[in-house]
Amino acid sequence: xxxxxxxxxxxxxxxxxxxxxxxxxxxxxxxxxxxxxxxxxxxxxxxxxxxxxxxxxxxxxxxxxxxxxxxxxxxxxxxxxxxxxxxxxxxxxxxxxxxxxxxxxxxxxxxxxxxxxxxxxxxxxxxxxxxxxxxxxxxxxxxxxxxxxxxxxxxxxxxxxxxxxxxxxxxxxxxxxxxxxxxxxxxxxxxxxxxxxxxxxxxxxxxxxxxxxxxxxxxxxxxxxxxxxxxxxxxxxxxxxxxxxxxxxxxxxxxxxxxxxxxxxxxxxxxxxxxxxxxxxxxxxxxxxxxxxxxxxxxxxxxxxxxxxxxxxxxxxxxxxxxxxxxxxxxxxxxxxxxxxxxxxxxxxxxxxxxxxxxxxxxxxxxxxxxxxxxxxxxxxxxxxxxxxxxxxxxxxxxxxxxxxxxxxxxxxxxxxxxxxxxxxxxxxxxxxxxxxxxxxxxxxxxxxxxxxxxxxxxxxxxxxxxxxxxxxxxxxxxxxxxxxxxxxxxxxxxxxxxxxxxxxxxxxxxxxxxxxxxxxxxxxxxxxxxxxxxxxxxxxxxxxxxxxxxxxxxxxxxxxxxxxxxxxxxxxxxxxxxxxxxxxxxxxxxxxxxxxxxxxxxxxxxxxxxxxxxxxxxxxxxxxxxxxxxxxxxxxxxxxxxxxxxxxxxxxxxxxxxxxxxxxxxxxxxxxxxxxxxxxxxxxxxxxxxxxxxxxxxxxxxxxxxxxxxxxxxxxxxxxxxxxxxxxxxxxxxxxxxxxxxxxxxxxxxxxxxxxxxxxxxxxxxxxxxxxxxxxxxxxxxxxxxx
Length: 788
Hints:
Blueprint: H1 51-63, H2 83-93, H3 103-118, H4 120-126, H5 138-150, E1 164-169, E2 179-185, E3 189-193, E4 207-216, E5 221-229, E6 232-237, E7 245-247, E8 256-263, E9 268-277, H6 285-288, E10 296-303, E11 309-311, E12 317-318, H7 349-368, H8 370-374, H9 380-395, H10 401-414, H11 418-430, H12 433-436, H13 447-459, H14 465-472, H15 479-490, H16 493-506, H17 527-545, H18 552-557, E13 560-563, E14 582-585, H19 598-603, H20 612-623, H21 648-655, H22 659-673, E15 687-688, E16 691-692, E17 697-700, E18 706-709, H23 712-721, H24 723-738, H25 749-759, H26 764-776
Antiparallel strand pairs: 1-2, 1-4, 3-10, 4-9, 4-12, 5-8, 5-10, 6-7, 6-9, 10-11, 13-14, 15-16, 17-18
């Protein structure tokens, strides 16, 4: 496992010292438990022997003879501080109580602890990481099932330009002879008033419009689709045969229609919208000539998971129309994330029940669409061929005779009819360990195993036909051949949306932080503005990562931010009120990449004030890769109202001044203080409560080197060139992509990947390729042989 992970619940202090901490740390007593042979605190100040002797006499009673933990302190000694930092902490805080170890003893014992069981190399030697038996994560399972079924549909265009294909007709029917205008509409938000869409070319009393194309779901969850119009309308999403919204017959004055649909993030779905303004019943259009027409308009909007309603933007729409996509809606219990990334490391009864329900849901869908998927619903031979291909897709390899007999032929022989046989094939396949588990047995370079590791690394899904063909033809045997496939696959939208999900986790915004702010201080920071900020950050991430350079440093140093007409005045930019999102350069002395993006700063702030602690923890854990655990006690910030003359920084210094706080906040606070020139909604400021902002900060590296910052730009420049930050990014990215600890792939994997990252000019896209290639062809991978 990764001992830099943020969720290990290991006792820490001063950036990751894994020792018995100060009194206020939960689970630790004020005094170490009595043990035979332990030195008394009165004698702690006297030097005794070698580092090993100091450890045996003063540390082992609490921490175990090999640092593995003891009854009172069960957590092992492991972390990321240097020997000098360890010595400093031990002398300041160990053991808990009024007297601590002398500096001389601390300087002896720290190198011993570091070399024997604390350092990453010692951890690897003592507790080598292994590739654990792993089932598919929920995301992987849903993607895989969707792609298994989708592979039987004729491929259709998913690309095209932003927006929807629009056809405008002069009459109330969409007849070819009445087609007047064909164009691409970037979005659907029109107010025609009492006129037609084409001036005098249209009768304002009757005309119709059809929009067609696709919509991309940015996130997984339930989407509420909304159509606003006073006239006839119908909407299809991911099913062009059955309307999601049918407003073809309207009554009353209700101009808003809503319907919900579950969509998987990162996938593209077909969409069609029709609108008709016409006279109902008897055609009396002649009588209406010359008279004012009723008003007309139409808006297509959605409410994404966890976000307020908005018109569907052009960035989510494309003119190409893909095939319908099967979306598994069965709810699953969440995957374990205790290691900092989702992993399928356990099977509960709830998960097994959900997997069974998902298999049944898939089987029902296959039978309902059998003729479309198999090309027939009655030819037994053709249906057997369909089933064989279904099993091959799910198991990710060609079937040998025994497997085909078990999964296909036996089911057809035992079933009373073909529909029952097909359902049994689907259920048997989707409940098979060969489908549900990825690493079974010893790691091999079998070409189909390689293809599977590659596809799940980059797409969280099964191999496509091109990858399986490469495996069949022996073109996944060398690193160069695997890299060629990885280069092809990383250009796929599925790869980008997986990278986007990682970046959200890296920045700790994957659970949609609550951005509600004090309305008295920030009256214009509405829920719509907060949602726009989320879009702004996503546009920033996409335009950097999907650019030609895909430069990690640009992500941290660029002064270009995506703003629209609603956000611009909040952040001191002049744009028209209806301006769409566009890249706007801000003062490079004030802003530096994603670390000063207003959404991130607002996410790590309170309702009315900034929060150097929250921002500092983000920087410490996620950006610098240091190990932290929960604060030593329930933490309630000092109320700003009770200290109206103090700045936020001054209140934080006051609250974290005690020694048991500073053992941790000595690293957290200086990082967070560097972002103090930004308020609770991420606006730049120079003063607070009448006092000038002090944004001086700093960081002490794992090697003990201290660097000082004068503000956000200094901080970002340090992070961009820091070996620690780069290695932390590589490690987190690897473990997110592969769902396994990076140490299981050998002690040299992380430093080699970091070096390659640097040689490739810190290209995030190239890093994804390197990680996928490295994990697809493991050299000395250790595999846990605990297969059920």
